[in-house]
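Data deposition worksheet. Section B asks for the primary sequence of the deposited chain exactly as it was used as input, without tags or linkers unless they were present during the calculation. Section C holds the resulting structure in token form. Section D is free text for depositor observations; keep each observation to a single sentence. Incomplete worksheets are returned to the depositor.
Section A, Depositor: J.P.
Section B:
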Amino acid sequence: MRFEELNIPQAVLEGIRRAGFTECTPVQAEVLPQALKGSDIAAQAQTGTGKTAAFLIAIFSRMLTTRAPGPGVSPRALIIAPTRELVVQIEAEAKILEGSAGFRIVPVFGGIDYLKQRQEIVKGVDVMIGTPGRLIDYLKQNVYSLRRTQFLVIDEADRMFDMGFISDLRFLLRRMSPYNRRQSMLFSATLSHRVMELCYEHMNLPERFSITPEQVTVEKIEQEIYHVGKDEKFGLLLGILRHEQGGRYLIFSNMKSTAERLELLLNANGFAASAITGDLPQKKRMKVLSHFKDGTLPILVATDVASRGLHIEGVTHVINYDLPQDREDYVHRIGRTARAGAEGRAISLACEECVHSLPDIEEYIREKIPVVAVTDEMIVTDYKRVSARHRGKPFPPQRKEREKREAGKQKPVRTGSNASRSERPRTHHRRDEKKPRPSPRS
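Section C:
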């Protein structure tokens, strides 16, 4: 199906052509005809299937063909996403797909200038895209209202549950216009019972769609797995990076502390790398992602906060340093490579702590991940190690001197005014010793 065959206004068609889209993906072909009629939608679709474009095209088309509500502080459309990265991605795609419509699109999420965001909302919003926490913060301060909002989108609904946002989501939904006075769309990787319960409670008899490909993972991803001991994982990672030079790597770990340590170790061993975790300041996060996207940073280390919502072209390798415990996270992680028809590799390191999740992953993707034998030559043993005390400062200025002292086992002695009190030579006198008196003058 081509977009021209659908009832899409010309202004939005201009945006579709600007984005380079010509034919609908399966999820777009299923969802758009009903969404353009005004029906509520509950759709199951995997990452990278074009669902973001589906709900943006539907919203923009309906906003151009329906009457706007009266003056007020309510945005016409609200899009709720679980992570900052996903909000940024949706905003970027929305500014392309709106074409010449001229909508005012405002992202709302934590980590950036609070007052500046507030002022942008006060100026008036057509489409607000945000994470639950910051949206609730401004709503409680009466910066905006949801009573006249006409369109609602909940993206990555299953992720909302996983991240503990469901109570926040219900708080927002209870303060919106009635379900029969707005059009609501929900997208999720799985339409579980808890997700469908949310649909039945806050939506108007939604049309249900399930677009599940025959192959869960992208066909052009070359997958492989190494069984390795926990103590040898980093040595194997270095061996892979040295053998597969010239790529752009996205490395996933299960824990924040592991990601931070990988960043230190990789930089100490000659590989430029940065880590993004949940508590990283937003400005620094955006700077790191920008450097990774433009190719100046070859290695990005991330926790699952980045496994959804990141659309980065040119990722050649995804490496699961820790095998994910959630089987769906495996698909989302490796889906960061082989995008837009390109090829990519997904390498997993299965140690004794993480290997128990492998059967569930293989059952979910309906295929066995090819096992690659680990040889001694592949594991680097003579790499530089760093101390956790020097987090963020792998090479403090005093390190070289300390290493020299430890190697020579000699402690330098300083004299004069530059020496500390403990280093100055001291003369010890016993209390019972009497100092010699000067001889009396004759």
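Section D:
The longest strand covers residues 221-227.
The chain is about 35% helix and 15% strand.
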